[in-house]
Amino acid sequence: MDIQRKSLANNTLMLFLLTGSNYVFGLITVPYLTRVLGADLYGQIGFGSAFYTIALLFLDFGFLLSGTLEIAKCGDDRDSIERVYSAVLSAKVMVAIPVTIVASVIILFVDRFNTDPVFYFWWYFYAVSNSMVPDFLYRGLENMSSVTIRNVIVKAVFAACIFLFVQSHSQYMLVPVFHFVGAAVALIIMYVHVRNHLGLHVRKVPFRDVWDQVKKSSLYFLSRIAGTVFSSMNTMVLGFIAPTGPTLGYYTATNTAIHAGQQAITPVTGSLFPNIVRTKNYKMVLKVAFWGEVILISGCVAVAIIAEPLCIFVFGPEYAGMTSMLRIMLPMIPITLLTYLFGWAGLGSMGKDVVTNVSVIVGAVFHASVLAVLFLFGYLDVYTMCIATVATQMLILAIRAFAFVKGLLDLKRRSSSAGVESLW
Fold first, then answer.
1. Phi, then psi, of 420 in degrees rounded to 5
2. Dihedral over Cα of 334, 336, 342, 344: its sign
3. 140-174: per-residue pLDDT in tens?
4. Which residues cross the membrane (predicted)?
5. CA 50 → CA 120, 153, 225, 266, distances in Å?
6. Residue 93 and residue 392: Cα distance in Å, rounded?
7. Residues 299, 304, 305, 311: what is their CA dihedral angle, to the nearest 10 degrees?
């Protein structure tokens, strides 16, 4: 048990570094970019970043979760690991082909994009690079330490390039360029490490294996849509209803701050997921949920109290107007932890994937319906959109929490009937 706990703690730490590097290095450039580019142009950066997030959602197609689960199930069988690894990568390429065609059509022919197509293609290339990262392999093997430091260093170097080379409004194009180059170099390093140090190779696999991975990942894809509906899609909608002025820039900065808090959570849930699949230790889920909420709620209350000076300090004096948006959206962070824990870490390891997906579908329908009603009655603005987003996440959490508690009670009842000690 001590070895398992040490492994879990080590992989959680490494996931903080690896997953967080995608966002932290972007976050630390925010105060600089908001000042150099201004709210209007930074809003365009936010629109491009939202496009990147949506593209990445479709390119990944849930392989991060499904691939992690499949690798974890392989145990120490290297032949099975290599087969799953090859099938998932082949499935990623198969999915990327139609997504690239659709993305190209959007960039070239939709008015909001074709005014600056090169800018949006760079964001798309960045999404492709990150989608091909084999982090599902490292997560499933619970072996994150060997590759994490190299990738963090590479991304730190290219984040520093933004400070060195983006000096004026006219150089805004360099933002997605440096993101892409950093991700591409990190991608190459990971594949070299998989081949030379893990001894795993991409091999030819039957098409049925590839298609099987696509079908399995499609369930997880539905779950990941939720985050996009509540963040990136909101940004896209605002880009159309408020294309000029600072509102989009304010929301982009708010979303960046909330997203950073949410991404600080994903390494915990990401490392817990394969561990719970193997051990079925639901006490760990409940313990992490309790202490995580204590820490996150305390932190969010503190941030809410000092929100205005904090926004000015981090983003600049021009962003004092985002204070109310930030306060409204802060509950998203503690809600997200419970949503993730009761979702794939809890229900996923119980084999109740359907409930997790249903909660997302219900949430997406609810959110879209609320926005439509607000629009029809003339109440749709950035503040009502923020409130609707928090309400939708609370609905998803309620569905997952109810199903998770019911699952625990069922497990306890079955354990009692079989005369064995309950795992939780």
1. -115, 160
2. negative
3. 887 777 667 767 777 788 778 888 888 888 888 89
4. 12-33, 45-72, 84-109, 121-138, 147-166, 172-194, 288-316, 328-347, 354-376, 382-405
5. 10, 25, 13, 19
6. 33
7. 110
d(CA 224, CA 219): 9
* pLDDT tens digits for range 230-267: 556 677 777 777 766 788 888 888 888 888 788 778 77
Cα within 13 Å of Cα(224), Cβ side:
20
The size of the chain, in residues, is 424
DSSP string computed for 238-303 = HHHHS-SSSHHHHHHHHHHHHHHHHHTTHHHHHHHHHHHHHH--HHHHHHHHHHHHHHHHHHHHHH
Q: For the purposes of burial, counting CB atoms within 10 Å of the CB of 237, is it exposed (0-12), middle (13-18) or buried (19 or more)? A: middle
Strand ranges (DSSP E) for 280-360? Answer: none
In this structure, how many other beta carbons lie within 10 angstroms of the beta carbon of residue 224? 18
CA separation (Å) from 420 to 306, 410, 415? Answer: 51, 14, 5
Contact (Cβ atoms closer than 8 angstroms) between residue 292 and residue 308: no
CB 42 within 8 A of CB 253: yes
Question: Residue 327 is which amino acid?
Answer: R
Higher pLDDT, 23 or 371: 371
Per-residue pLDDT at 306: 95
Q: Answer yes or no: are the C-beta atoms of 397 and 333 closer than 8 Å.
A: no
Nearest partner of 265 among 322, 184, 344, judged by Cα: 344
Please provide the DSSP assignment of 389-424 as one string: HHHHHHHHHHHHHHHHHHHHHHHHHHHHHHT-----
> Nearest 5 degrees, angle CA 70-CA 74-CA 80?
95
What is the rounded distance in angstroms from the CA atom of residue 105 to the CA atom of residue 114? 10
CA distance to 150, 178, 201, 205, 309, per residue, from 83 (Å): 26, 34, 9, 7, 53
Query: For the whole model, what pTM was predicted?
Result: 0.68
Q: CA-to-CA distance for 50 and 105, rounded, in angstroms?
A: 17
pLDDT tens digits, one per residue of 26-66: 667 777 888 888 877 888 888 888 889 889 989 998 898 88
Question: For the chain, percent helix, then strand, then coil, each to nearest 5?
Answer: 85, 0, 15
Q: Which two tokens stand for residue 363?
A: 């949430």
pLDDT higher than threshold 70 for residue 20: no
Calculate the CA 386 to chain-centre distance: 19
